Amino acid sequence: MDYLELLEDEDRLFPFRPARAWQIITTLTGYPPHYFRAFGEDYLYDSWDKDPVEVSSYVMVDIRTFVEYIRKRGLKYGVV
Fold first, then answer.
1. Which end of the chain has fewer CB atoms surrounding its CB within 10 Å, N or C?
2. Is the pTM of this model over 0.85?
3. Residue 61: which residues within 8 A CB-CB, separation 6 or more?
């Protein structure tokens, strides 16, 4: 928290770009970051009475995109 207070508005929390973060996460976990987002969305979907409107609004994704992922859940990465 002390470090965060030292950052200026234009400073980055991590000294690398999103593509490098993608590489680090994929290398360390064996899964791309998208897997973790899909896992979280799937969890919310099941927890919130399978309400795609509520979940897509909460995670700020277009409802049409979210519904496509929910229809295909479990196909790409196995059961989440």
1. N
2. no
3. 41
